[in-house]
């Protein structure tokens, strides 16, 4: 049974260069380029950006920042993925000493980008991996895909002993930027940003002492047979022909249902009887991301995505974790105390909600820019 274990040896997060930073001023410039928007859309976007919790240190794709969101190219989509995949993998191989030919299993998950040759083939070609590597490309699963990838590796480890696996999780934002005016489709522009991560996993018992975490449980729930759940998070075209990602009001309902069904399976596996009783009253989960994880701590990872799916897994921390990552330079500033929280969008553009503007016909973009 020990050979069936799944250990996380290392992971490498992606942090874009500063020229891709999507701060308030950059967001406003992008919004104002969309000539389909009116006062109602500006107000909706302001409310969404304020409520999203996104700060000044998120990153966007180069083609959108450069004003080419309406004419994305395949080359730009590949460049966006290459920067994430190869940047994190280079660092992962360098830090761990594991070389690309050592990898037995490769899984890449990305929600909306499925080129040919596949992204896994692109990685195999770049690093000249073995010809018998087991490679899998996952697409169309939304934000739940990373947990699907982990669960896939865990199951493959039951058949392949003493193996190394790499999971690369990311998304391409550039080719899928919505340029229309439907509120339910503009949400994705406000909520998602550029990022990614590469993870090195193994089931080698001899490397247990080097592991950061051990996968204890994983549970996948798919309620796609329900029509409302299936359509609550879906890629479509609007009436003007603009392609985008529709998020409906049924999303929260579907998420709650899938999450509840998932926990009914997961919770009995991880909590003793006394905690099960407590769980029915409270259910508070959190993860410390500020170098405070200690040996024996349990981490619940939750992912929800199109389909509709809820995939959760539980990791056990194998050693005290104190190493920083690419976000180390700003981690000490978060979370921001509520009393000190000043949203830059609300601070600069709350005047858009002034009811007196309802009776004025003018070019709001010129007012905002001035």
TrEMBL record:
Cellular component, GO annotation: membrane
InterPro entries: 3-ktacl-CoA_syn, FAE1_typ3_polyketide_synth, Thiolase-like
A GO term for molecular function: fatty acid elongase activity
Annotated ranges, domain FAE: 2-282
This protein's UniProt keywords: Acyltransferase, Transferase
A Pfam family reported for this protein in Swiss-Prot or TrEMBL: FAE1_CUT1_RppA
Coiled coil segments of this chain: none
Biological processes annotated in GO: fatty acid biosynthetic process
Reactions it catalyzes: a very-long-chain acyl-CoA + malonyl-CoA + H(+) = a very-long-chain 3-oxoacyl-CoA + CO2 + CoA
Protein name (database record): FAE domain-containing protein
